[in-house]
Design a protein that fits this description.
binds hypoxanthine, binds magnesium ion, 10 strands, single chain
């Protein structure tokens, strides 16, 4: 696939992982034995996720550090990134003069069956977001594929008239897209392959894996619905 350069609204498009990057062998890392044979390779090791998240926390603090923020964690895939990002922001707050009072709210989106995006997007826990009015909102997502989900979510959140909305996405897939809804803060730009781990699932499996990995064909078969 021809390289598609991501245009984020601010900052960088994240660490770029090329289409021809074979990933790390699973033998180089620890992972749960119950997933042996279900994974092809490690794309982003857990330690690298944590290091990148630390830097994103600093960038967010630099941009939003003088206002209260409401973090909107997009479940389920965003829970681990959100927890770690909030931890890193808290660490910065504890160790400098600049602190941000943070509230964390959870919403749930569901649109994937097996490895395919479905048309019907469900937003749960977002019925009344009137408390966002006039606030700085940080939406935290685990992965952005086509961007359609993010676009729908942004439209929903905008209706409650926050003062500012920023989006942090750990992973952005390099897919041809005609939407401009990309995160302001991106961890990694990855090839258009189905990945799991670090709270990202395939039919609810693999959330209990620390690294971000590519699922194998046999893994897809084993957990197919
Ligand atoms: N993995 C898990 N969930 C996802 C993905 C993916 O690659 N893309 C969109 N949702
Ligand atoms: Mg999912």
């Amino acid at each position: 696939m021809a390289d598609v350069v991501l245009q984020t609204k601010g900052g960088s498009g994240g660490i770029v992982i090329d289409d021809d990057w074979p990933g790390y062998s699973l033998d180089l890392f620890s992972y749960p034995a119950h997933y042996a044979g279900d994974l092809q390779c490690v794309v982003v090791p857990h330690g690298v996720i944590m290091d990148r998240t630390e830097r994103l926390a600093r960038d967010i603090m630099d941009d939003l550090g003088d206002h209260d923020i409401v973090v909107l964690c997009v479940l389920k895939g965003g829970y681990q990134f959100c927890a770690d990002l909030v931890d890193k922001i808290k660490a910065l707050s504890c160790n400098s003069d600049r602190t941000i009072p943070m509230r964390v709210h959870f919403i749930r989106l569901k649109s994937y069956l097996n490895d395919q995006s479905t048309e019907d997007l469900h937003i749960l826990g977002a019925e009344d977001l009137s408390f966002l009015a006039g606030k700085n909102v940080l939406i935290v997502e685990g992965i952005i594929g086509t961007g359609k989900t993010l676009k729908a979510l942004l439209k929903h959140v905008e209706a409650f008239q926050p003062k500012m909305i920023k989006v942090a996405g750990l992973l952005v897939k390099r897919v041809p897209r005609n939407t401009t809804s990309l995160p302001d803060y991106v961890g990694f730009e990855i090839p258009n392959r189905f990945v799991v781990g670090y709270a990202l699932d395939y039919n609810e499996y693999f959330r209990d894996l620390n690294h971000i990995c590519v699922i194998s064909d046999s893994g897809k078969m084993k957990y197919k619905i």
